[in-house]
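Handout, section 3.2

Students often ask what a structure token actually looks like in practice. Rather than define it abstractly, here is a full record for DUF7674 domain-containing protein. The first block is the sequence as you would receive it.
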Amino acid sequence: MATTDLTYGGVVPTLIEVVPELRDALDEHIRDNDEILPHVFFGCVMVPFVLNAWKHGRADALARCLAFLDAAMASPDPSLRELVAVSFVEAVGPWDPMMADFIAIWPPALAEEAAAQVG
């Protein structure tokens, strides 16, 4: 996935192209909020979806999500990197020992952000 194609403004629609399983959740999010709120969507929808995929061994969905998040974290768009850092990585809680096995499978840009947050 080309990181130059990802922008903060288009991140959620692009995510739905990669992870169509999130379409119904996005539709509900828009009904509830009258617009796409990326931080809310990532924190309240994306994080639980990815954790559920990991816990239940849904390898395909998990791989697509992590690859997308990694590409977003490597984007030249600082707002997009902040979105992933705050509303995904921080929301997962990389300092929580119970998340260590999950974070151990993260691709490079996500893993680097998790390590930076732990200090």
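Discussion prompt for tutorial groups: The chain has seven helices and no strands. How would you have guessed this from the sequence alone?
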